[in-house]
Amino acid sequence: MTKSQLSTKHVLGIKYLTVNDINLIFETAENFKEVINRPIKKVPSLRDVTVANLFFENSTRTRISFELAEKRLSADVVNFSASSSSVKKGETLLDTVNNILSMKVDMVVMRHPAPGAPAFLANHIDANIINAGDGTHEHPTQALLDAFSMREAVGNLKGKHIAIFGDILHSRVALSNIFCLQKLGAKVRVCGPPTLIPKYINELGVEVSYDVRESLEWCDVANVLRIQLERQDIKYFPSLREYAQYFGINKALLDSLNSEVVIMHPGPINRGVEITSDVADSDQSIILQQVENGVAIRMAILFLLAAKR
Ligand code: NCD
């Protein structure tokens, strides 16, 4: 039986969630998925709750997804993006946030380039904090929507083979996926060029492979990640063209496998680099279902955190 409350006041990382928390978020998201497919998509659950979306780093789908989730729960929403704010004038993070909180904000959704920034906030202010991606560290809501979408595609994840392809070193989606999938009992493997696999990977208890074909044969689901060029200050591989040739996933490769693999990608996709268009847009791909599920997952998290206030 799933306990009906989260064990935590914040969602800072999958590392800090229990298996019960994850299952509770999934059960709640299933209900909200039904709500957002109704003609009237709005429920009053977060009326009188004010949520601030603080985005110190670029984002399209995560920011819109959170904003939609908040609005469908009838929350009051304020948006902040660093590029157009006083951060550019030299204000500290804590000053910026304290100013926003003086306006009586109950929950903060935060994306920040520095790992640990949401945890820092959680130690200093009273609002519920949700990490929407902190540098190369964690992206818990993405991992939850990924695991939720995998469950829809292949059923219970216990014992399932999930492979994560690409830039494991710089991707917060990779780390959060590893934590989440392991908690749910899946077998996890990472696959990419050796330079993009972190040295500490063995401590995480995942398999490592440098062979894309063999990993595709092994897995039930392939979660394909973008090369995080904006986080790479040195060259990790000779060229994008070479990367695409050795590590890219294309239709001919998929069609030559013995079984059909479910293809996922958190976006933004670099078409023709890690994945070709005919794969991204194929029936094997559940990329747009991931986006749809993102709203339901974020509604579930906001709802469950509000219940703890
Ligand atoms: C990811 C992110 O920002 O970490 N995207 C997302 O949230 N949908 C992945 C990425 O940027 O490659």
Structural write-up:
The protein is 39% helix and 15% strand. It is an alpha/beta fold. The chain folds into two domains: 14-138 and 291-306, Rossmann fold (3-Layer(aba) Sandwich), CATH 3.40.50; 140-286, Aspartate/ornithine carbamoyltransferase (Rossmann fold). The protein has a five-stranded parallel sheet, sandwiched between helices. The longest helix has 21 residues, at 287-307. The mean pLDDT is 95. N-carbamoyl-L-aspartate binds next to helix 2 and helix 6. The site of N-carbamoyl-L-aspartate (NCD) has 10 residues, from helix 2 and helix 6.
Task: From the structure above, extract its key features.
single chain, 309 residues, alpha/beta, Rossmann fold, 2 domains, five-stranded parallel sheet, four-stranded parallel sheet, 11 helices, 39% helix, globular, binds N-carbamoyl-L-aspartate
